[in-house]
Write a structure and sequence with these properties.
Length: about 230
């Protein structure tokens, strides 16, 4: 008796990741705006796939931070108000400050932090905002990992993934370049230097101050539209 043909799990996995990539592109291109509900049936019809496949793709985006899902409710594109951003920076200051202090006390290997910062500098030079954000996120996740505290790492991922996803959406929508990061890059370098010096209390306070400074300008920078250059005499 011939066995029934089994579904190819690798093919199904590929489909959901391709759908997640397509939906992610709709988000970053502005077709799905922050806060908008993602209706599974609508996108299943648009992509000519089963609704369950769209649901799996949405779950991938939820893990990456691009969408939020509450029990029994439709997913929505991640969205933060200016007040939310201020609150998140305050939380990041506390969380990453403690992570930095614990890391400094361990005299950590900062190689991955240094590589992430080097990639940020390259991206800034080339005006590659998305690449810079990817490296910036890697820097802060690594900082938390160096703490050696799994609870800090877990909470950091819950905070940082949606936060950076939202920043990416807003930067693409506003058309901003990487110019606003100039001073920020040196702040990242200072964090590395303090970790290497084993200055636990100092680096904790420094991270808190840096996050407080970022919070005062970040949201407005993301919302700005780039100014069009004009030629003299026109």
């Amino acid at each position: 008796m011939r066995k029934p043909k089994q579904a190819d799990p690798s093919g199904e996995t590929l489909i959901k990741y391709e759908l997640a990539s397509s939906l992610r592109q709709e988000i970053v291109n502005g077709a799905l705006l922050p806060g908008v509900r993602i209706v599974e049936g609508t996108w299943a019809r648009k992509f000519s796939v089963a609704q369950g496949s769209i649901r799996e793709a949405i779950n991938i985006l939820a893990q990456e931070g691009f969408v939020t899902k509450a029990a029994g409710r439709s997913a929505r594109v991640v969205s933060f108000s200016e007040e939310d951003v201020l609150d998140l920076y305050a939380l990041r200051g506390a969380l990453e400050g403690v992570a930095a202090r614990l890391a400094a006390e361990k005299k950590p290997d900062t190689g991955l932090l240094e590589r992430a910062l080097a990639a940020m500098r390259v991206a800034a030079t080339r005006d590659k905002g998305e690449d810079l954000l990817d490296s910036d996120l890697a820097f802060h996740l690594e900082l938390c990992r160096l703490s050696g505290n799994s609870y800090i790492v877990d909470h950091a991922r819950r905070v940082l993934l949606p936060f950076f996803a939202f920043v990416r959406i807003r930067l693409i929508a506003s058309g901003q370049g990487t110019g606003a990061w100039g001073r920020d890059l040196e702040a990242h370098q200072r964090i590395i230097d303090l970790l290497n010096e084993g200055e636990g209390d100092v680096v904790e306070q420094y991270v808190r101050r840096v996050m407080a400074r970022f919070s005062t300008t970040a949201y407005k920078n993301w919302e700005k539209k780039p100014m069009l250059s004009t030629r003299s005499g026109r």
